[in-house]
Amino acid sequence: LAGAGPFTVFAPNNDAFAKIPTDDLDALLSKPEALEAVLLRHAVNKTILGKDIPQGSNRIKTIEGEEIEVFNDCGEITITSCEGKAKVIKTDIMASNGVIHIVDTVF
Q1: How far is CA 88 from CA 16, 30, 33, 39, 102, in A?
Q2: Tell me, what's the pLDDT at 1?
Q3: Alpha-carbon gap, residue 84 to 21, rounded angstroms
Q4: Which residues contact 104 (CB under 8 A, 6 or more apart)?
Q5: Phi, psi (degrees; rounded to nearest 5) at 33
Q6: Is the full-model pTM beyond 0.85?
Q7: pLDDT band at residue 4 using 50, 70 and 90 as cut-offs
Q8: Rounded to an integer, what is the distance from CA 84 to the centroid of its chain?
Q9: What digits encode the pLDDT tens for the residues 64-79?
Q10: Sheet holding 43-44: strands in order across?
């Protein structure tokens, strides 16, 4: 995600990674292809600001190719993928190539 973008990244915070059992996290970190798939599941090839996410359910295709659900309930945003669900806890951290939203769970 070091490219020109634009990107939207739903970035898990440290607490999100701490929820992953140690053995599972070690296994993920030892397999670059699996780690890349997880990371790309959290990224989209366009800039999506929190205020621009329509109310209700929205389907968005990730860079990894999965279609995730981004649900906006009066400003409370959740993400659901085939691997789990996360709550967006901070929106609209601007980067030179897009925007970052912090999530509480790795999905």
Answers
A1: 11, 27, 26, 16, 6
A2: 63
A3: 15
A4: 12, 13, 15, 16, 86, 87, 89
A5: -65, -40
A6: yes
A7: confident
A8: 11
A9: 999 999 999 999 999 9
A10: 43-44, 7-12, 98-103, 84-95, 76-81, 67-73, 56-61
